[in-house]
Amino acid sequence: AQSVTQLGSHVSVSEGALVLLRCNYSSSVPPYLFWYVQYPNQGLQLLLKYTTGATLVKGINGFEAEFKKSETSFHLTKPSAHMSDAAEYFCAVRFYSGGYQKVTFGTGTKLQVIP
Amino acid sequence: EAGVTQFPSHSVIEKGQTVTLRCDPISGHDNLYWYRRVMGKEIKFLLHFVKESKQDESGMPNNRFLAERTGGTYSTLKVQPAELEDSGVYFCASSQGLPGGRSEQYFGPGTRLTVT
What we know:
Largest sheet of chain A: 6 strands, mixed
Order of helices and strands of chain B: EEEEEEEEEEE
Oligomer: heterodimer
Helix content of chain B: under 10%
Helix content of chain A: under 10%
């Protein structure tokens, strides 16, 4: 079975500080891993994804995440937080069952950026 | 190209009433998914259509929920009768019908349902 754990439902950082949102997964097959972001009153937007190849993936708005198989982690980072980064972030794992994809999400982490 | 759209954006209904949510996928996307997020919890899969057929409805919570996708275009999700625990945000997503199902899911903005 596949599962996703996001540590910390709320994270606060100061503007300009490092952003680190944690995600650990459990998957019985090689995972496809995703980070989605939801800005207030908007839908889920794909931030970045890992499928195969390079384990450090870069996404939009300066975010990146590193797939660490030994740690079963896919933490999201950004060197310097901006006020516009305030949103809710979801880690997800995608797998295939019967030829079709299924996505399992974490519980989400709300990022607050303090001026 | 228009993205996935959902209607309404918000709905407030009383317990026992009926509500119908609508999702319009991206044109040409065969796969349509419904998800739900109850307050503070994870986004959970409800069901998956391939064209007009239900491929997987293992996530539907109970028989008060009925999803349809007539003609393989837009989909509706009806809750009848609504209960307090049905409150949450209902997301729709669509993806192309690529071989092996390895295509990206695009999400709509969600419908926030409040049952009072």
